[in-house]
Design a protein that fits this description.
Blueprint lengths: L2 E6 L7 H15 L3 E6 L1 H4 L6 H17 L7 E5 L5 H9 L5 H5 L2 H8 L8 H4 L1 H11 L4 E3 L5 H18 L7 E3 L32 H9 L17 H13 L4 H7 L6 H29 L2 H27 L6
Parallel strand pairs: 1-2, 2-3, 4-5
Helix pairs in contact: 3-13, 4-8, 4-14, 8-9, 10-13, 11-12, 11-13
The protein binds adenosine-5'-tetraphosphate.
Adenosine-5'-tetraphosphate binds next to helix 1.
Length: 329
């Protein structure tokens, strides 16, 4: 059975972008492969974050995972920091990725550009190394990601080429998989920018109440043309709303555009988008509330840590042996 791995960083409150680009697809994976879904809490430390906020975000993600339909009997759900092999493999594989290639990573350039030099930690620069370790530990072949993570997957693939060329067939080659629709949901207030939890301008948060969510959609930035069609360059706001509508209705962008063909009233268009979002998110949010109140996610994370550790340690040993570290068992 093919191994599939994905995760979300608890850097902020989850957004509709995280839901459409990631969460919504997880339950389908568990029927088609051996699934590992983690909370990337070590990655969250690469940007300044308050400890209590980090803990709360991590609890929320665990509950959102379960609310999304992930079944802990089928999927291994765990916290990255509870599997020490992530850090151990990171410290080995960092020697096979180079400063030049890491400094070309768009995500690093974007995030560091917003910070002053004294705030930029080594962890932010080395983020793709830990991400490679995350993937390689589970011999994952398929890694569902948003478009902007593809560059990191390419780096992980370069690492595997280099490593296997030197030591033999040790690491499994991962492949990034991007959704056809909704791989990049944009901010509602500036639709030229990605909706991002660590830069929460124009975000819809999954914890927002439905009234707030509808209000945000109704006041989303559009344009002066008053005609609904898909043109992400000249009509980024309308195109973003069409993308949200298409993704949540499981239809193509073309089908969504056809549905609204000739629509000249943005108010009507937005209302229909808001109805779609509400239909999808209202039951999901209700499940989340139940799960967070019951605390059942804690046992899931404990059990997940056991399963993940057992699998990750096998890969770690294989790598340690290959590079010449003495393993005593
Ligand atoms: N706007 C988005 N549209 C579609 N998919 C998105 N994802 C994130 N934002 C969008 C997907 O959600 C998952 C979580 O990824 P992550 O937490 O590892 O980091 P990210 O991709 O960098 O997401 P954010 O929300 O922008 O986080 P910050 O602000 O912390 O960097 C991934 O599958 C991602 O593609």
């Amino acid at each position: 059975m093919e191994r599939i791995l994905s995760g979300i960083k608890p850097t902020g409150q989850l957004t509709l972008g995280n839901y459409i680009g990631a969460l919504r697809h997880f339950k389908d994976f568990q029927d088609n492969g051996e699934v590992f879904i983690f909370i990337a809490d070590l990655h969250a430390l690469t940007l300044p974050i308050d400890p209590e906020v980090l803990r709360q975000n991590s609890r929320d993600i665990a509950a959102f995972y379960l609310a999304s339909g992930l079944d802990p009997k089928k999927a291994t759900i765990f916290l990255q920091s509870t599997v020490s092999a992530h850090s151990e493999l990171n410290s080995i594989v960092q020697n096979y990725l180079y400063m030049g290639e890491l400094s070309r990573m768009t995500q690093f350039k974007d995030k560091s550009a917003k910070m002053n030099d004294k705030e930029i930690g080594l962890g932010l620069f080395a983020y793709p190394v830990l991400m490679a370790a995350d993937i390689l530990l589970y011999d994952a072949k398929t890694v569902p990601v948003g478009e902007d993570q593809l560059q990191h997957i390419e780096l992980a693939r370069d690492l595997v080429h280099r490593f296997n060329h030197k030591y033999g067939d040790i690491l499994v080659m991962p492949q990034g998989k991007v959704n056809k629709v909704g791989a990049r949901i944009m901010s509602l207030s500036d639709p030229t920018k990605k909706m991002s939890k660590s830069d929460p301008k124009g975000d819809i948060f999954l914890k927002d109440d439905m009234k707030t969510i509808r209000k945000k959609i109704m006041s989303a930035v559009t344009d002066m043309e008053a005609l609904v069609y898909y043109d992400p360059v000249n009509k980024p706001g309308v195109s973003n709303l069409l993308t949200i509508y298409a993704a949540l209705n499981d239809i193509t962008i073309e089908e969504a555009a056809k549905h609204f063909e000739g629509c000249t009233r943005y108010g009507d268009f937005k209302k229909e988008v808001a109805d779609t979002v509400e239909r999808e998110l209202a039951p999901f949010k209700a499940r989340y509330e139940e799960i967070i109140a019951s605390g059942e996610y804690l046992d899931v994370l404990k059990e997940g840590a056991k399963k993940a550790n057992a699998i990750a340690n096998v890969t770690l040993k294989r790598v340690q042996n290959a590079v010449g570290l003495l393993t005593l068992e």
